[in-house]
Amino acid sequence: MNRNLIGIAIAAVGFVIGLAFLGSAIKNRNKADNTISVTGLGSNKFTSDLIAWSGNFSRNSFELKSAYDELANDKKVIENYLISKGIAKDQMVFSAVDIQKQINYGTDANGRSTQTFAGYQLSQKVSIDSKDVAKVENLSRNITEIINLGIEFTSSPPNYFYTKLGSVKQQMIADATKDAKQRAEKIAENSGAKLGNLKKATMGVTQITAPNSTEEYSYGGTFNTSSKDKEASITIKLEYEVN
What we know:
Shape: elongated
Largest sheet: 6 strands, antiparallel
Mean pLDDT: 87
Helix content: 25-40%
Strand content: 35-45%
Distance between the termini: 52 Å
């Protein structure tokens, strides 16, 4: 009899404990479900204040020294031309000279492969970083003036940057957070509930594209450098408790 009573008592205690755990699980589950997750957007349009442009020039000759001397003379001509266009000498960066031996490949009358020395090609690059965007932009578009000086010159498209991007990001984060909170408050209001404490905030990556473009956003963030005018955006995901 005593053993039966003890067994019943243990079973009863176990039942009560089980109910307690079940009640706690249901309560926590309901609490977890009473949340709102919203995503806010912050965006900003701005114009680049830094331009980076470069061009390449080269010379070909069977004599290495001759090619080098001609390239050195071209460098002086280019340097003087850029100075005449208002570019400071300390803004110009000339790369080291690249030397390539040119080989012509073919076959002889017997079908055997042949290699013929075709001379040396020496090339060099000049780069300019400037906050005078309009001046360098205009320079990159009128590069035929250098070609008319008898120099084999190839211009690269300029790249545009913004040096105050940090402050733009801070403002976008603030705008995205405000937008997300307003969305959450509206959802709670329309549901007859009240917005509770913020549980979690997740920030997305910054996307920088040309305005009104068809550029696609990327998982790691897009950073357009080909357009002088830019549009940046960022998302903030907020999760709130709902009372």
